[in-house]
Design goal:
2 domains; Glutathione S-transferase Yfyf (Class Pi), Chain A, domain 2; Glutaredoxin; alpha+beta; four-stranded mixed beta sheet; 7% strand
Length: 248
């Protein structure tokens, strides 16, 4: 059997305390690769604009370059036959699709708001995420990204709401994830699926990094099942290490 070329995965940093990566989308993709047993090399980039679509994650495999976590999962299914949802019914697949869109199209942006627009969390982006960049360059990069992020939030629509309104909407999403999970080990039962990789990416980034101030954290702590689930997924992520996970 012919060997597939090694996949190179480009994300942010693996050095941020409490999370595999500060991007929910990178965590989603890396979790999926590990669950599927796909070996890969991991690369960290400080500047997402270096990516083919100006964002992370993206992968390269031989001469191919694929960006966006969802499109990468489509590529993996087409090229490698990987389908983490193989066990789901058509109805569950539809429910999984809707759940993932809720997580990625609204809850993610509430997380972005709490990181970039809450004064109490200014240190997070300025010192933790950009800490490796020397001053005064760090200040200018931070201000530039902050301006761009606020513009993106406004263009999305969520940035036009007040903080109270944003959190009210996001807490409904957290409550919905908790209700979907219930007492099950994973969102759709005994077997892990792509929805679990997606949910884990956002939940670990809400609660994993120490010292962040956010109503989203308080909302998660109202659901013991979500805390246990996030811990369970983090353990699974750690145990499912591929053959090669780091690149020089």
């Amino acid at each position: 059997m012919a060997r597939h070329p090694m996949i190179d995965l480009y994300g942010f940093s693996t050095e941020v305390p409490g999370v595999p990566d500060p991007s929910a989308f990178v965590v989603k993709l890396e979790t999926a690769l590990r669950l599927a047993g796909v070996p890969y090399r991991r690369h960290s980039l400080d500047d997402p604009s270096k990516g083919p679509k100006g964002k992370l994650p993206y992968i390269t495999c031989g001469e191919e370059i694929v960006a966006d976590s969802t499109l990468i999962m489509d590529w993996l299914k087409e090229r490698r036959g990987i389908d983490l949802d193989w066990h789901l019914t058509p109805e569950q697949r539809a429910q999984s699709h809707a759940l993932q869109r809720m997580i990625e199209e609204r809850l993610y942006w509430a997380l972005t708001y709490t990181r970039w627009c809450e004064p109490a969390n200014e240190w997070l982006e300025k010192d933790l995420f950009f800490g490796g960049i020397p001053q005064p360059l760090r200040f200018f990069i931070y201000r530039s990204v902050l301006k761009q992020t606020k513009a993106t939030l406004a263009a999305h629509g969520i940035g036009r709401h007040s903080g109270e309104e944003i959190y009210r909407l996001a807490i409904r999403d957290i409550d919905a994830i908790a209700a979907t999970l219930g007492e099950k080990p994973f969102l759709f039962g005994e077997r892990v699926s792509l929805a679990d990789a997606t949910a884990f990416g956002i939940l670990v980034n809400i609660i994993g990094i120490p010292d962040i101030k956010s109503p989203l954290i308080d909302a998660m702590r109202e659901h013991e099942n979500l805390i246990a689930y996030t811990d369970r997924m983090l353990k699974l992520f750690t145990e499912q290490a591929p053959e090669m996970k780091a690149a020089a």
